[in-house]
Amino acid sequence: MAARIAGAAGRLMRQALAVDLGGTELRAALVDETGRVQALAKTATDSAGGPDAVITQISALIDRVMAEIGLLRPLGLGIAAPGPLDPVAGIALAPPTLQGWHDVPLTALLQDRIGLPVRLENDANAAALGEWRFGAGRGTQNMVFVTVSTGIGGGVIADGRLLHGWRGLAAEVGHMTIALGSDKSVFGGATGAWEALASGTALGIEATRSMGAAEGARLRALAGWGPASSRHVVLAAREGDALATALLHREAHLLGVGFVNLMHLYAPERIVVGGGLGTALDLMDGEIARTVQTRALAPYRTTPIVPAALGHEAGLVGAASLILMES
């Protein structure tokens, strides 16, 4: 029996379980067909414990969520997990944030444990799906989602479908090269890649390097004795710190260059920006718009670039949608 809860007009709504598997935090939820999270459980991910340890954690979180919903039975389980992975085969190939994970048949292992259909998707793709169905991308048929935080990831909706590519490896947008000759790289990626220059990690590194005795007093105070982070930059810029404002101006230009590339590649109706730096889009939209106007071909210049609407829940809502869209 599928999970049912009463809707506003007395209609019974379908529900699905969702898991957002992060290298730091593991979350499980029950999500209804309107995109609302009905129950949530979370824990720190045992990322060093290997697949068996994490799968045991997932099972325990699912049990906690199921305990909150009583006798109701969900339609299945959707998992948002770090790539690279093969969503069709349900295999986690080699996620760098999870130690000892190599060709793990995650879908099959969890189906055996919980006795429900299980679907697997790249975490950025899942967030894109959530924003498209229930968030800032709702109503479009062509949308690009970009998350700018520790790294830069993304997902693409093309002609009303999530774009997968071969083995589900499409839309690794953070690895676009946007600056030939740059010597900057992060996480072992290519030098000059978009995430090497414009991710939250890159912004924090640049802020730490730029803080001097006379500049960035508020930024330096927020960072204390440690290195600056992108969050410190945003907070200091909101308080009028000149160095932080200049750093965000540079960040906006670099993001704008990447957005123009995505416009030319995918012709989206809308670009939706999530992640930690997505919340600072209001501080950067002027320079982003100028960059788009000077670099994009004329038909692309009116593409809206908007902040994500679902925040931390986008991956969970998108993961649940993997099941709900099939039913």
Automatic annotation (TrEMBL):
**What PANTHER family does the annotation carry?**
BIFUNCTIONAL UDP-N-ACETYLGLUCOSAMINE 2-EPIMERASE_N-ACETYLMANNOSAMINE KINASE, ROK (REPRESSOR, ORF, KINASE) FAMILY
Question: Coiled-coil intervals in this record?
Answer: none
Protein name per Swiss-Prot or TrEMBL:
ROK family protein
Q: Which superkingdom?
A: Bacteria
Q: What's a Pfam family this protein contains?
A: ROK
Q: Which organism is it from?
A: Lichenifustis flavocetrariae
Protein family (similarity comment) = Belongs to the ROK (NagC/XylR) family.
